[in-house]
User: Fold Isopenicillin N synthase-like Fe(2+) 2OG dioxygenase domain-containing protein from Plasmodiophora brassicae.
Amino acid sequence: MSRALDVVIPVVDIQPFLSGGDGQSLSDACKEVARSLQQYGVIIIKDPRVTEADNDVFVDMMERYYEQPNEFKEDERPELHYQVGVTPSTKERARDHCQRFRNDANMDMPVTVCPPGADPKWRYFWRVGERPAETSFASLNAEQVVPARFPEWPSVMDRWGSLMLDAVKATARMAAIGFGLPDDTFASYLEFGPHLLAPTGSDLSRHNAIGTAFASVHYDLNFLTIHGRSRFPGLFIWLRDGRRVMVRVPPNCLLLQAGKQFEWLTGGEVLAGFHEVVVCDATLDAVAAAKYALASLRSALRLTRLQVRRALTLESVLDVI
Assistant:
């Protein structure tokens, strides 16, 4: 049984940390970051350096990219294990966790079919952050892939990726303080890591049946994953007690999820929780609202050639290793 409950994830304003404060407000904020990661496996932050407008510029560009006919998306690098450039639909498949869910009566069951099929989403990998001068892992440090029809691509990707990476570093330091550790305990591991901006896109004009899994149930292997706010909801996470809940990110906020590296570094104090992205009622409500808004705009402007975009569920993700 899957309960799909709504749980209010706390929102932590990281301004006290960014402003260099050292009073009670900073202490409380750091403890709340640690508590949320411990209890939920996720944290929602408000970073004054990141605005909804920044997110919109990034998402708008990614929507235009994914809306292209497939023959124009010639940016895949399978010889590099898709670690840069685009990963086409049905190339990603989650590990089979079916038995684990069946064996734990306390865990809500996922909507993802068992065993999971290939995910219908597309993904684009773009490296962010400083690279090591020398490396033994060439595929993790390969040349960037810039789509030919998007001259603005590097500047948009670099700006959004830098904003999210800076937010992760600040949150990592706050989490360490909240756990009573030196503030660089986690952040020191992030230097020169193969951090990836990895926005996914799924075509809701084709894959719009309730229960369709765009990202089958899985946990992340990295340290932290940070998301911008999605225009089409559908992310569900599992809490420590096994409950499956929907995550809603407020405007001007960012969502961070703990991965396996965080779990290992904390000895299980923070768990890499399972999560899945599926089509649900809220997804279709957002699609309907988007179509209505476009229709209203067309009527108001009296345009005859306004092309209605396909609804894309677009999720911006930074995998921080």
